[in-house]
Amino acid sequence: MRIVLVGPPGAGKGTQAAYLAKNLSIPHISTGDLFRANISQGTELGKAAKAFMDAGNLVPDEVTIGMAKDRMAQPDAEGGFLLDGFPRNVSQAEALDESLKADGQKLDAVLDLEVPEDEVVKRIAGRRICRNDSSHVFHVAYSAPKQEGVCDTCGGELYQRGDDTEETVRRRLEVYHAETEPIIDHYKAQGLVVTISALGKVTEVTKRAMEALGRSDA
Ligand code: ADP
After folding, report:
1. Which end of the chain has fewer CB atoms within 10 angstroms, the N or the C?
2. In what residue span(s) does the Adenylate kinase active site lid domain sit (predicted)?
3. pLDDT of 166 above 90
4. Domain membership flag for residue 19
């Protein structure tokens, strides 16, 4: 399956993507994670992306689209993928549509995760992520690790992302409404959008998502 996940920052896209990708046996491709990996490795791409990310703005399309396409061209993504954080504006969506079409492929679904704005700010401000694996996500109040600052799953160090401050979150939400939400209409016109609520337990949301994708059997 070829799936795009959309939803505001803090909707739980990364958390859900990890479970869904496993259940559906497709790679989880997160442009945010790809940028963060480039930043920690000190690559030119990482240097180009960092200031935009820290300000809560989108990294320019010239950088982003090439990076996303390169990742989708890897052998593990031949049979499908779950995109998380891409496309993030209409021109990225158009670039994705064209590149899939050129390969005789198409998307199967766009899964839209809905969550109220005040919940988003609470989730993100308390979010802590493992340095070893960004799918190991905790929250200081909602899902606190047993030992402060230490990942329950692998013992890695937990940290707060530089763009997870309240001020940057507000900016990321503005960018989401202005630039990313329009892709939902773009894909509604193609009949691809399924919307689910992202409130409730992680396992409940995953179940809802699998049902919405018609894959509750997987
Ligand atoms: P979240 O969805 O929680 O905001 P991500 O990890 O997906 O977090 O993205 C973090 C940041 O990375 C974004 O605010 C943006 O600066 C950059 N980014 C990620 N994906 C894209 C994209 N497709 N286009 C432009 N910038 C992106």
Report:
1. C
2. 127-163
3. no
4. yes
